[in-house]
Automatic annotation (TrEMBL):
<dbReference type="Pfam" id="PF13185">
    <property type="entry name" value="GAF_2"/>
</dbReference>
<keyword id="KW-0812">Transmembrane</keyword>
<feature type="domain" description="GAF">
    <location>
        <begin position="282"/>
        <end position="372"/>
    </location>
</feature>
<dbReference type="GO" id="GO:0005829">
    <property type="term" value="C:cytosol"/>
</dbReference>
<dbReference type="GO" id="GO:0033745">
    <property type="term" value="F:L-methionine-(R)-S-oxide reductase activity"/>
</dbReference>
<dbReference type="InterPro" id="IPR029016">
    <property type="entry name" value="GAF-like_dom_sf"/>
</dbReference>
<keyword id="KW-1133">Transmembrane helix</keyword>
<dbReference type="InterPro" id="IPR051330">
    <property type="entry name" value="Phosphatase_reg/MetRdx"/>
</dbReference>
<comment type="similarity">
    <text>Belongs to the free Met sulfoxide reductase family.</text>
</comment>
<protein>
    <recommendedName>
        <fullName>GAF domain-containing protein</fullName>
    </recommendedName>
</protein>
<dbReference type="InterPro" id="IPR000614">
    <property type="entry name" value="FRMsr_CS"/>
</dbReference>
<dbReference type="InterPro" id="IPR003018">
    <property type="entry name" value="GAF"/>
</dbReference>
<feature type="transmembrane region" description="Helical">
    <location>
        <begin position="6"/>
        <end position="23"/>
    </location>
</feature>
<keyword id="KW-0472">Membrane</keyword>
């Protein structure tokens, strides 16, 4: 009986460890073979065939999963950009718990390995030591600054993520890499990454024109990195209440129209009632769209007037739908609220029915709240 008890305990422990490594481990969000993430037997299997075999398998992993790969339960392997001549030993100088893998002749990758400490030491090590590694990566590879900052934030604890924006020194000019999204990530993970990128791009800038332009681009690239139906998004952008546009902040005079007798036309943005409020086209990605939408009209106007998110599984069944693009079949609209008023809306269209769900609603509402608080309206 004791033998069976010990055997059963060993099996149960192994299953618990596999579940932990695949879903709760600090490295669980990095891409790589699931078998390699679950057990060290994956490495042992290839290593048993001879020296260099596992290194060859790591190259195959990079070709399949990208520049950052989880190769064992407690190790990630980072592939260097072409042309890098520095040795990885210098990047982890002064860290006793980490050791750097030396490059094989002709290799462009470095492996950062843990010396098999206990699980608790691995978890604390990730939070304490990874900043040192990534900061050195930032200094050596300027074009990968945004990715490096995002790597550090992925490994940070939840409290660190909330209070640690990507600063100007950490991110530099982040535009080059901010549209890169981790392959094979879940929709929730992609949205989390989008929120982090938004936080970095908006740091130090409160002009909504500039900010929404970048966020529209982020949304477009985020959806294209996901499988269907999210990859079928054909329009992503914003509509803004017309009095929030800089040129309409107060009554202005425009040049006279050809043949018009008057010397100018005065444009007023004082509304006699809320029904007269207008949404004007703002920054977006996709085909040309409707120039203006009145509050209460169509999906966008209805969401703006009701001040609530609207998900439409099939726009053909929505009363009064305004068809800017005949290919659109489903839509989600999220209002951006400031002091109890709708100042703008996030509008996402998809070419297939039921393209959006509660995950989209949850994270787009987070994005709307962030934009409301971090732009000057």
């Amino acid at each position: 009986m004791l033998v069976y008890f010990l055997l059963g305990s060993a099996v149960a422990y192994s299953l618990v460890m596999i579940i932990y490594r695949l879903h709760f481990h600090k490295l669980s969000r990095f891409p790589g073979p699931r078998l390699a993430a679950a057990t060290v037997l994956y490495e042992i299997y290839f290593s048993a065939w001879g020296p260099g075999i596992f290194e060859y398998e790591i190259d195959n992993m990079h070709r399949k999963f990208g520049p950052v790969v989880r190769i064992t339960p407690d190790e990630i392997h980072i592939q260097e950009p072409v042309g890098t001549s520095s040795n990885s030993d210098g990047w982890v100088k002064g860290t006793r718990e980490l050791e750097s893998g030396h490059c094989r002749p002709g290799s462009k990758a470095h492996s950062f390995q843990y010396k098999r400490p206990s699980i608790s030491r691995v978890l604390s090590l990730l939070r304490v030591e990874v900043n040192h590694i990534v900061n050195n990566l930032i200094e050596k590879h300027q074009v990968h600054r945004m990715f490096s900052s995002r790597l550090r934030l992925f490994l940070a604890s939840p409290s660190e993520k909330k209070v640690q924006p990507i600063s100007e020194n950490e991110g530099g000019d982040p535009h080059a890499d901010s549209s890169y999204f981790m392959p094979d990530s879940s929709k929730a993970d992609i949205y989390e990454q989008l929120l982090l990128s938004t936080q970095g791009l908006l740091n130090g800038q409160r002009n909504w024109v500039s900010n929404l332009s970048n966020v529209a681009s982020l949304l477009w690239h985020a959806y294209s990195s996901l499988p269907a139906p999210s990859s079928s998004v054909n329009w992503a952008g914003f509509y803004i209440r017309d009095d929030k546009f800089p040129a309409l902040a107060s009554p202005v005079s425009s040049p006279p129209l050809p043949g018009a007798p008057s010397s100018g036309v005065t444009i007023s943005t004082t509304y006699s009632s809320s029904e007269n409020q207008l949404l004007l086209l703002g920054p977006f990605q996709g085909k040309p769209a409707c120039q203006q939408i009145r509050f209460g009209k169509g999906v966008c106007g209805t969401a703006a007037a009701k001040q609530e998110t609207i998900i439409v599984p099939d726009v053909l069944t929505f009363p009064g739908h305004i068809a800017c693009d005949a290919e659109s079949r489903s839509e989600i609209v999220v209002p951006i609220l400031v002091n109890g008023e709708t100042v703008a809306i996030i509008d996402i269209d998809c070419t297939v029915p039921s393209g959006f769900d509660d995950v989209d609603k949850k994270y787009l509402e987070k994005l709307a709240t962030f934009l409301a608080e971090n732009c000057d309206w």
